[in-house]
Amino acid sequence: MKNYYASEELADILLNNGFVEITDVKFPSHSKQIKENGYNPEKAKRAFRINTKDLIIFEYITVKFVHKGNGCGAANMRKELSESELKSGIAFFKLPFQTRNSIMRSGVAIPTLYNEYRYIQETPSYNNPRNKFIVKAFEEVVL
Fold this sequence. Notes:
The chain is of the alpha+beta class. Helices cover about 45% and strands about 15% of the residues. The chain is built from 7 helices and 7 strands.
């Protein structure tokens, strides 16, 4: 299984999944540096958005999943992401707003949402209204 890091490759995956880079707005000096010298994760920050409230931030070598712009707890930060953690992050931000809020209230860390998806797939009798949204979001993720 492949691991992912704050990199141009990860940025391309996010862009291919519907995210928009907003580094020029969120971190203008870093955006200028990237345009002049190329992207170096040890020297620059980047930010990506797929909806109005949530972000994926490359804070140097750390990837942060930020829900509702309210900062990021340690459970939602990674220096490296497994395929399932990356899929979890992308799928989470594709979910409807109410579903994202419900997941966050239940205490699930964004990078571990794959466990919920796997449980839904393995347990057809598990009937939660948000299940169809989670399955659809995971099926739409392209790595």
